[in-house]
Fold this sequence. Notes:
- With 422 residues, this protein is mostly beta strands.
- The chain folds into 2 domains: 2-29 and 322-420, no CATH class; 32-321, no CATH class.
- The chain is 1% helix and 35% strand.
- The chain contains 1 helix and 34 strands.
- It has one helix at residues 91-94; strands at residues 2-13, 20-22, 24-28, 50-51, 60-62, 73-76, 79-81, 86-88, 99-103, 107-109, 112-114, 170-171, 177-178, 216-221, 225-227, 230-232, 240-241, 244-245, 253-257, 260-262, 266-268, 287-292, 294-296, 300-302, 304-309, 323-329, 332-333, 348-350, 354-362, 371-376, 380-382, 392-393, 398-405, 409-420.
- The strands form 8 sheets. Strands 4-7-10-15-20-23 form a 6-stranded parallel sheet, with no helix packed on it. A 6-stranded parallel sheet has the order 5-8-11-16-21-24, with no helix packed on it. It has a 6-stranded parallel sheet with strand order 6-9-14-19-22-25, with no helix packed on it.
- Strand 32 and strand 33 form a beta hairpin.
Amino acid sequence: MWWRESHRSAMGRRDHVGPTVLLMLAVAVFLSASSVHAQFDDFNGEDGPFDLSSEPPGTVVDFDLTDLNDDGIFQFTLVNIPTDVTVRFRPDKAGASPIIWFVQGAVQIDGSLDLNGDAGSSDPVGLFAAPGSGGFGGGLGAHPPSQALQGFGPGAGTNPGHGAGHGTAGVTDNCTLDLTTIYGNPFLVPFLGGSGGSGGGFITTVGGGGGAGGGAILIASAMPIVINGMINARGGDAGVVGPNEGGGGSGGSIRLVSPSISGTGELRTDGGDGLTPGICGDGGIGRIRLETLDLSGLSTVVGNTRVVTLAPNTPLDPSDFPSLRVVQVGVVPVPENPNSGFNPADVVIDEQATLTIYVEASGIPLSVVVDATIWNESLGIIALDTLFTALTGTVEASTASATATFPAGFSLIFINATWNLP
């Protein structure tokens, strides 16, 4: 069994004011298979109740890290989402990590949890489609002389108009399945959301953006989980400009752990629609895992689904989640809860274009080497000038650094650590 810990960043440089770096951060935290011996007693409820019963019908609430726990793992005493109230999870507020809720008491979802990926842009100079928290963004459409860009994530659409895959394959623009886009497993280890579809169009023609991937949410409760509403982690639809559409994003991941899971509601990880919905350019469906002693009543479950009998000990432990994050670029510190977007940027740096990236890690073996890939809007994929230094410190708290040269324009940087579980 392997584990991959990721940190995604975006940077850019503006030559007319000197080198400028704009940083977008996104952290993906994946579930450890080694946590199978924990118990519900580890849930401490330190974040209190997440109770929206006082919100009027029709309210949309952005789940906001600045108002809650800032480490991406939440310890609630109970969860109550009333009818016609929607909780939305987007990287600019909820962070880019998968959403992880450990709940001491009952979970009642009569409204909706929205982790959908955004649709691709239908503006030829539009922005990347944003994923649900835990997912990956869609690629930009072509805007001559710039060509279409592939989506992001392990199942991204790689050619113009190709849908992303996840639990099932994405569909190409010529209506064939791309089996190379399938990733993940029924255990949802690592815990990943959906991937982004490719942008559409070619170097001589404009095209729409690719849809973003659906997010990822894990809810574990010592008491019943009742869903009469919806948990939705759908991939975003493709954008269209002229005759050229991008590809659909793939569906995300939903994992529920409870002695009882019931209700009349829906769990959905549909893929986004592509050029011809249901035929060409669609994103694949996501993954769903339900661990319980008693499953009943759900009206709709859309995803590559596994239902398993809950083990005597809950397979979750709040202390078993490694972390990897960028803490500083050059001399400028990175916000602990980054906006994860270009407008506004999280960090703006006017200094030399060759900068040192500093990372901090926790729970990652010191033998692991942090790796990075950088995509620049002008040059495409570029490499770091040097590899990251070895992690130093302790497994509980370590650091590493690397030097990178950033050319003009926006860039995305993906920082990863991969290792085998014992």
